[in-house]
Amino acid sequence: MGRISRRTVTLGAALALASMTAGDAVAGSPHRRDRRRHEMRGMWLATVANRDWPSRSGLSAAEQRAELLAHLDTAVRRRLNAVIFQVRPTADALWPSPYEPWSAVLTGAQGADPGWDPLGTAVTEAHRRGLELHAWFNPYRVANHTDPSRLIPTHPARVHPDWVVPYGGKLYYNPGLPEVRRFVQDAMLDAVRKYAVDAVHFDDYFYPYPVAGQTFDDDAAYAAHGGGFPDRAAWRRDNIDRLVRETVHRAKEIGPRVRFGISPFGVWRNRAKDPRGSNTTAGVQTYDDLHADTRRWVRERWIDYVVPQVYWNIGFAAADYAELVTWWAETARGTGVRLYIGEALYKAGDPAQPAAWQDPAELSRHLTYADRFPEARGHVFFSAKEVGQDRIGAMARVVAEHYGDHPGRGV
Questions:
Q1: Over the stretch 153-179, which tens digit does the pLDDT of each residue have?
Q2: Of 11, 287, 349, 359, which is most buried with the most CB atoms under 10 A?
Q3: Considering the domain boundaries, does residue 408 fall inside one?
C-alpha cells in the first residue's frame, strides 16, 4: 500500500475535477439513488499484527467479543452493508480449524484456544445487523519473520519445511508446489463448510512483493513442475491462476451462492509495458511482480467481484485515481464481474501523505468520480480502525454526501 510517492495534477484529473458538478447531478437522480442504495459499502477488518482487531493480543474472550461487535456496530452507523473480515492472516485461523493453529493475534500464543469462536460470532452478529460477512484469507503468507522455530511444533510449515520459502524477512508457502496449493485450499475452505459466509475474499498477496537484492528461491519447484512454460514468470502466473480457478470451483461446490472476490494492487500493468495497461508509471505491476493476472480473471469471468486497491488521490502522477477507476471500469465492462473500488481511508489526515489527503473532501470526490461508471458498483474502505476513528472527518463526509439512506444488500 502506498508504494508510489510522486504527486502531480494531470490533465485527465483536472478535467475530472472540473466535471464534478455534472457527476453530482447524476448522483442525485432517482435512478442513481436506487443504485446507490444497493451498492457495495464495505470495510476491511484486518487482524494481521492486530491492525484493527483485537486491539492487542491477550484480551479476554469477553473483551475481544465486545471489540468485534463494536466494529460491526460502527459499520452499521456508517451505513455500510459489508465487512471483509481477515480470518487467516498468517497460515493460522480465527476459528477452530483442523488444519492450522489458532492465531496468535488472539491470545499472544499461537495455537492457544481463545475460548470462543470469532468467525462464527462474526457471521452471526453481522447477519443480525443486516451486514454481509466476507471471509478474507491470505493464501501463502506463513509468518512475518523468518524463524520457523517460532511456529508451534505442529504447524504445517514445520511439519513440511520443504513447503516454505524465506523471503524479505518473512516466511511464505511456495505457490509452485501442487501439494501446497491443495493444502491452503483445504485450510481456507474449511471455514466455508462450517459457516454461512457470504464470500471468500483474497487480497493482493500472491507471490510476494519484490524486495531489492533478494530472490524468491523456487528453483527446485520450477525444475520439478515448470516444464512446458516459456519462462519462470509464465509458470508462476499459471500457479496463481490455478489457485484462483480451483478455489472458486471448490467454494461453489460447497456453497453455490458463496461469492468469490479478489482485491488486487490497483495497477495490472503500465501502458508502457503493455498497450492494454493503464496510463500509469507504477513501480509495481501485479502481472509482472506478483505474477497475478488480475485483468484475465475479470475478462474471463473467473471471479464474482474485484476490488482494486486504488489507493492514490485524484491527480497523483504515477497512478491517478481517475485514470485507474476508468481503466478498471473498462476492464469490467460486459463481463458481469462486479467492480468495487478499494479506498485508502487510512491515508486521510496522515501527515506523511500528500496534500490531497489532508483535505476531508478528497475521499468524497472519489465516490463522485466513480459514480459516472455503471460498472463501479460500490466501494470498500481500508480499514475498520479508520472507519471508526475518522481522523479528519473524511468518512463522515462520505456518509453525509453519498450514504444518506440506509443501504440494502450489496449488488
A1: 999 999 999 999 999 999 999 999 999
A2: 287
A3: no
